[in-house]
Amino acid sequence: MSVIEAAGAAEDPAESLGDLLRCWRGRLDPQRIPGLVRDGRRSSGLSQREVSRLTGVSDRWYRELELGRQANFSEDFLDRLAFTLRLSDVERHGLYLRAIGRAPAPRGGADAKAIRALDGPMQRLLDSQLPHPAYLSDEAWTIFGHNQPQADWFPWIPYEPNLMRWAFLYPEAREQLVNWRDDWARPFLAQIRFACLQLPGSEPLKQLKRDILKGNPEAREIWDRHEVIEHPDGHERRLRLPYHGDREIAVNIMALTPLRSSTARFIVLQMAD
């Protein structure tokens, strides 16, 4: 039986959650994790310590998990774990079944009105930005259209399509976004505050704000600064890419708004001079 088949067959008592986790972390190419710095002793697979850091739990907590002694699984943790281990949809389904005995909820989607902005010509416009990453997001920063460089640079998109949720609720974001707190987190929260002021009736924005402030203590502290930014157009920031270790690159964020959907964002990341 293949690993994927085994993950879906959660009723098989011979295979524990620890068996699956050890297999999944052992097969992962560490170079896929942006910014991951290793001690040079392991050439493949993630260590327990690396998984614990990337999922935001203690080394002991994760070690106990693989030994079958931990049962307090939240959906947020399981989704972070599925992303860290780069699980397929079928494997994520198997993880949920093995860990909490039920299937995961469908992943969140973008606003229907914004999605209508993504047609053939708009996708061609995204693709024409090559080699620069480009994407479309709705009013609550859920990405609903992108080109291939965007997917190559940011491997989290298939797992968590919301930019802000990834940045604040997935510890791996701190590995990829250089100077996470001041250059990324503070401007992101200032943008969310402005969007909430601009669209006070938006339920997706309200839920996004609640999720971030509930799930990230540092975000709550930054939020109390009451900073406001309308958009990041022209800002220069630094990040790390998959298969580039801890090498940093600088990009300029170019922010546009399609006239056909005034709450959508068309973002292009240009390599800075």
Sheet/helix structural class: alpha+beta
Arithmetic mean pLDDT: 88
Taken as a percent bin, the fraction of beta residues is 5-15%
Strand order of the largest sheet: 2-1-5-4-3
Q: Terminal Cα separation, in Å?
A: 51 Å
Low-confidence stretches: 1-11
Order of helices and strands: HHHHHHHHEEHHHHHHEEE
| Helical content band | 40-55%
Largest sheet properties:
5 strands, antiparallel
Count all strands and give the number.
5
How many individual helices?
Answer: 14
C-alpha Rg (nearest Å):
19 Å
- Shape field: globular
Would you kindly provide a written description of the structure presented here, covering whatever features stand out?
- The protein has 273 residues and is of the alpha+beta class.
- The chain has helices at residues 3-8, 17-27, 48-55, 59-66, 75-84, 89-100, 112-115, 120-127, 148-153, 163-169, 172-176, 180-198, 203-215, 217-223, and strands spanning 134-137, 143-146, 236-240, 248-256, 265-271.
- It has a 5-stranded antiparallel sheet.
